[in-house]
Amino acid sequence: ALDAPAQQAAYKEMAQVAHDGLGAPDRAATYLAMGLAAGDDDAELLAALVLYHIEREEWNVALDYGRRLDAVGGPPAELAHEVHQQLAAAALNGNEREAARLHLRRALEAAPEDEELRQRLERLLVEDGEHTTLRRLILDRASREEGAARAISLARAAQLSADELDDDAEAERLFTEALQADPDADAIRDRFIALLRKRERWSALFEE
User: Fold this and answer.
1) What is the DSSP string of 3-62?
2) What is the DSSP string of 113-136?
3) 57-102 pLDDT per residue, tens
4) Distance between the two ends of the chain, CA-based, in angstroms?
5) 62: closest CA among 76, 82, 77, 78?
6) Is the pLDDT of residue 208 over 70?
7) At what angle do helices 131-142 and 115-127 cross, to 10 degrees?
């Protein structure tokens, strides 16, 4: 008799043949479930079942498999971007917004260059008032940018610090960094000056 890992490998192969070769996703899902039953939770099997149930809009079942997937360390690297995006959509459908934010962050970690995904996460963070997390996200982006693009991101983080986080000192520091990245950014300089006036930082204002 085959041991559990060998059985799971066989069921994975059968599922792939059913899905890709025969165009029978329901049969493939049955083999995936049988593979899970044959041994310990397996990330590849769980990830495939997440995607199968999301495709059928079976959100709660998908999220249950997603939680089991988290418990074994998440999906395989090559599937992380897609699986976490899909789990975020399922979580939002069930109004599990914290879980949705978590999965979007993990999807972005898997593909930091996905600008559309970054914007989706930023919108969700704004809607949910998660300004500290949003600032970290913006600063993470700034860390990979240079010149004018870096200045714009740093200025966004500075404005967020001043307007939403009541952290004028950090806002001043970030505006300073932004102008170091792009000394010719007049619009950013104007916002920085407004902050200095608000803080009555006259000596710093004179320097500007």
Assistant:
1) -HHHHHHHHHHHHHIIIIIS--HHHHHHHHHHHHHTSS--HHHHHHHHHHHHHTT-HHHH
2) T-HHHHHHHHHHHHHTT-HHHHHH
3) 999 999 999 999 999 999 999 999 999 999 999 999 989 999 999 9
4) 78
5) 82
6) no
7) 160
d(CA 188, CA 152) in angstroms, rounded, equals: 8
What is the Cα 196 distance to its own chain's centre?
A: 34
Only one residue has tokens 């899970």, namely 36
Structure tokens at 163: 């307007």
Please state the φ and ψ torsions of residue 138, each to the nearest 5 degrees. -65, -40
What are the pLDDT digits (tens) for 136-149?
A: 999 999 999 999 99
Q: Kindly report the pTM of this predicted structure.
A: 0.80
Residues 6 or more apart whose CB falls under 8 angstroms from that of 190 comprise: none
